[in-house]
Design goal:
The protein has 370 residues and is an alpha/beta fold. The protein is 46% helix and 14% strand. It has 14 helices and ten strands. α1 runs parallel beside α5, α1 packs antiparallel against α10 and α9 runs antiparallel to α10. It is globular and about 50 Å long.
Length: 370
């Protein structure tokens, strides 16, 4: 258990300057292409890395959590932040000016299932509330290792049931509902939409997954190359990937308390039919790209409308650095377009608009800013 927890913690913090600067031989050429916003992002990440340097175990996790929560310090949040009350699931409402109470987004934060919080991800939840004119409920689900993985997933399930009939102002049926998450939270989101289908609950109008984990075992043909380009996951997972697969399997079982092949932790391995329209955004530089593409291909083969939009030369969940990174703002613009097409299709009682947009996203995959 300790091995994978330490690896996951390190993965969140191990961003190094070589992500954009590349190997030593390429430093001169790459440095000239870094603009000031990218440099500021690297400084923020390097500061987090320095703060946890030399720490181990619970001390490292505690400092990681503190660092992640500090990411929202000084952020110019336009939305109002309201903690949940009166027996509601633990979390906070993020409500942009004019957001409609019957329009809701359930947001599930990332952090390797051991860190992160609604506070750490306010840059994303504030932006989503504004672009969707919706009230975002950022869930504060239970984290490992104090809790089981399944406890956090159960919190997501409870929150979805609750959001169907409750908004920021009390009981009110949702007219528009989206499930969204990033990284580990993106995995929870993809697991959740399959669970909603199996429980025959009212489905969400759409789902959004930002750099999601879709297969816990990371069985990737591209792993050797991506370990070099994925500055967030690569440095730590390079050591983990050297461990024989059977031993990695055992470590995953001990830490997650479930088989890594289970759809509860690896949504890629589940039944992907009859899912809501889903948009996945992922960096072409990260290890999770290949599994995300496999997830989308399997879902499409099962008849579900799932689209991957890949983004060149970005860090894992670059959306956290909006509005500093122009690429983050551009990615959110595509999210807004996707949700608008979902609503247009719902009003027209068909999937034509979403399918058309899905095809356009495929064409733009190599240049999504265009």
């Amino acid at each position: 258990m300790a091995l994978i927890i330490i690896a996951l913690v390190s993965a969140v913090l191990a961003l190094r300057r070589k992500h954009w600067a590349g190997e030593e031989d390429d430093e001169t050429n790459t440095a000239s292409s870094l603009n000031e916003s990218h440099r500021q992002v690297l400084e923020k990440i390097n500061g987090m890395h320095a703060a946890t340097e030399g720490l181990r175990g619970r001390a490292r996790i505690k400092e990681l959590r503190r660092c992640m929560d500090s990411m929202s310090d000084g952020l110019d949040v336009i939305s109002s932040i309201r903690p949940s009350v009166n027996g509601a699931p633990k979390g906070e409402w993020v409500v942009a000016p004019g957001a409609a109470p019957n329009r809701r987004i359930l947001y599930i934060h990332g952090g390797s299932w051991i860190a992160g919080s609604p506070k750490s991800h306010r840059a994303i939840t504030d932006r989503l509330s504004r672009l969707a004119n919706a009230c975002v409920f950022a869930l504060d689900y239970r984290l490992m290792p104090e809790n089981r993985y399944q406890d956090g997933l159960s919190d997501c399930q409870l929150a979805y049931r609750w959001l169907l009939d409750n908004g920021p102002n009390g009981k009110e049926t949702a007219d528009f509902l989206v499930v969204a998450g990033d990284s580990a939270g993106g995995s929870h989101a993809l697991v959740l939409i399959a669970w909603i289908r199996d429980q025959e609950l009212p489905p969400p109008n759409a789902a959004l997954a930002l750099s999601p984990s879709t297969d816990l075992m990371l069985t990737l043909q591209s792993a050797p190359d991506k370990l070099k380009t994925d500055a967030m996951l690569g440095p730590s997972l390079e050591k983990l990937m050297r461990i024989p697969l059977p031993l990695r399997w055992l470590v995953a079982v001990l830490s997650m308390r479930t088989l890594p092949s289970s759809p509860l932790v690896s949504p890629l391995r589940g039944n992907l039919h009859q899912l809501p329209p889903t948009l996945i955004q992922v960096s072409e530089s990260e290890l999770l790209l290949e599994n995300a593409q496999q997830y989308a291909a399997k879902a499409q083969a099962a008849g579900s409308l799932v689209t991957v939009q890949s983004w060149p030369d970005m860090v894992h969940v670059w959306h956290l650095f909006t509005p500093l990174l122009p690429e983050a703002e551009a990615a959110f613009a595509h999210v807004g377009e996707f949700l608008a097409q979902v609503e247009a299709s719902a009003k027209n009682q068909g999937q034509g608009a979403v399918e058309k947009y899905s095809a356009e996203l495929g064409k733009q995959a190599r240049n999504p800013q265009g």
